[in-house]
Amino acid sequence: MTNQSPLSSRGRLVPTLPKGDVLGTYDTYFEAQAAVDRLARADFEVKKVSIVGSDLKTVERVTGKLTWGKAAGAGAASGAWFGLFFGVLLTFTATTGVFQYVFAAVIIGAGFGALFGIVTYAINRRTRDFTSTHQVLASKYEIIIDPSLTMKAQDVLSRPETH
C-alpha cells in the first residue's frame, strides 16, 4: 500500500518530486518562470504547475581577498545591526534617553562584532583568505504539469504573446 499523501503519519511534510508531463525544458530559471507567467496571465490553473531544477551544481564566486580590515568591518557591521535590534528592544522599557540607549547599543554591538570578526579571521586565516558568494544552480529547468492540463497549456504557450 502506498501513501499518496504528502504528509507522513506524524504530520510532517515529506518532500516529493512533482509528477506529471514535462511541458518544457529551459536553460535558465528565468525562462521557465516566464513560461509560467504566460500561463498565469492567461488565467491558467498554475497551482498544478511546478518548476523543477535538475543537475544541481554549487557555484562559489570569489569576490575578493579577505584582510584584517575587511574582517573587522564586516564584523562591526553585523554587530551594529544586532546592537540596533537590542537597542530598539531596550526602548520599550526606557522612559527617558531612548536614543542614547539605541546609540550605545549600536556602538557596543559594532565593537564586539569587530572583535569577533578579527578573532574569527585569525583562526581561519591560513585556510580561507578570500571572500565569496555561494549559489546552487541547476543545469536545466523543467516545467512539470498535471497531465489533464498539458494540451491546454501547450495551446496557451504556442499562441503569440499579446501585451
UniProtKB/TrEMBL annotation:
**Record keywords:** Membrane, Transmembrane, Transmembrane helix
Entry keyword annotation includes Transmembrane helix: yes
Keyword Transmembrane helix found:
yes
Ranges annotated as spanning the membrane: 71-92, 98-123
Q: Taxonomically, which superkingdom?
A: Bacteria
- Identify the InterPro entries for this entry: GSP17M-like_dom
Which intervals hold domain General stress protein 17M-like? 22-97
- By its UniProt entry, which Pfam families does this protein fall under? YflT
The protein's name is General stress protein 17M-like domain-containing protein
The organism is Lacisediminihabitans profunda
